[in-house]
Each structure stands twice: as structure tokens, then as C-alpha cells.
Amino acid sequence: MIFVAWWDIVPLIVRPYIVFDYHVQNSDFPSATIASPDPWEDFVTLFRKGQQPLPQAWADLFGPLRSGTVDDLVVVGQLGQSLDGRIATETGHSKYINGPAGLEHLHRLRALVDAVVVGVGTAVADNPQLTVRRVAGPHPVRVVIDPNGRLCDDARLFAENGVRRLVITAQGSRCAPPRGVETIALPAVGGHIAPAAILGALAGCGLRRILIEGGANTVSRFLVAGCLDRLHVTVAPVILGGGGPGLILPPLERADDAQRMPMQIYRVGDDALFDCDLSAQRVALGTAKKSR
What CATH class is the domain 6-281? Predict the structure, then answer.
């Protein structure tokens, strides 16, 4: 297993940033689209309509999430980590590695996608809500990958708030989520469900833009399977010195065999956001039945 070491990240960070300004003015929107005093709320509406051009200040970062380049789906993974590539300390503590602007970025991603996906390990350890709270925007469908039915009924992501909730489990498991939570059973090999099968099932539910939010194992498995269009890695200017790595990938014998990808770096508050374009290695997945 390997992860990105901090000394590999530093040379990238010292390059000039694209300073990302979330404070877009209403004047940047076509006049007919303005319906709210909050420019972000208008942006979400414009983004989801998929027709008119986006304000340039947000188009570079969020525009690629609007429509797929390989097929109908857009799948983005995200990680928040320290400068030395850690997503938690050795004791498992992770709240919060990233600063307020980095956390706000995560909520903006949630507001733009149809579904947010986490693995059961993250759901058990962090008990996330997976809702949009720090910015304006609709809550995404909440999805947990739980092959063996480990997640308790009182998990916060199961809370009833009018939003669809899904459990992806293994065929033959005894998964019995709370009333109102949908279950999708898929084949599992070695206790794992193939990322492509998961995305195909979500596409069958009409979910087209999908955020793979965590944890490290889940994001890594989608990356290795060629199932990510983009990867957003938000790096905080802290060094933890140990703990869980952000990415867990098969080891390489030679450094020049490592995959290189187009990338932009944005300064988001005190954090550095790496927007990695993985579309060249993304496998074809299919077409959603409908779009939200």
C-alpha cells in the first residue's frame, strides 16, 4: 500500500495558486437567472439546468461536474487530508483537519450532485449526516455501501428528512435498514462490491452526478477501478506525523510508472485544493434513467 508523501506534495503547492473566490457577484449571472440574493443559490440552479453558461469564477472548478465526458455519469471523489497525506491521527481523530473554507467546499459539492456515497466504515466511525448545511442547495440522495449490514438503524444518514436514502449491500446479506430506506443487493467478491456495479445501480435509480465522499478505502477502490472522472483533494497546512493515509493503492515498482493527470490547484481559505482530471482513465459506466 502506498500514499502520497508530503515531500511529493510540497513542490506542487509552491507553484502559483489559482485563488478561488467564492464571493461571485450577481452581476456575473445572466439577468434572467437571478432569483435569490445569494449568488451560490443561483449558481446551483443554473448548474442543474445545464443550458446557460456558468459564471467564470466558478466554471473552471465546478463546470466539469455538470456533464460527463465518457458517458452520462459524472463521478467525483473527494478527500480532505494533511500535508503529510493523512486523513486522521493514529487514534482516528479527524475533526477537523481542513479549515472552514475546505469544509464549505465539501458542502458545495454535495449541493451540486444527485447522490453522495460513503463506505460503512466512515458511516460507523464518523456518523455523518451527508446533508448540505454550510451553503445553500438541495440535499443529495444519501448512499452507504454496507455489504454485511453493519450500520445501526440510528445512523444519522438514515434520518428521515424527505430525502431518498439507499443502502448498497451484498446479495444474501441480512441487511435490514430502517423503514423508508431502500436496499440494493449486488454481487460481492471477498466482501467487496465492484465500484462499477455500484455506479450502474445508482444510474438505474436515475442518479447521474455522484460524489464518492469517503472514506479512504472507498475512494481508493473507485480510483483503482477507473470509476472517477475527477478527484478533489483538499490539503490542509498541518502535519499529523502518523495516522490513516488518504489514498491506499497498489504499490508500483518504478516511479515513472505512476499515473500523471491534468490538474489545477486552487487556494480555498488556508487549504490547497487539487482538482485532478481522471477522465482519461475512466471506464464507461452507462446512462442514468433520468436526471434530478
Answer: alpha beta
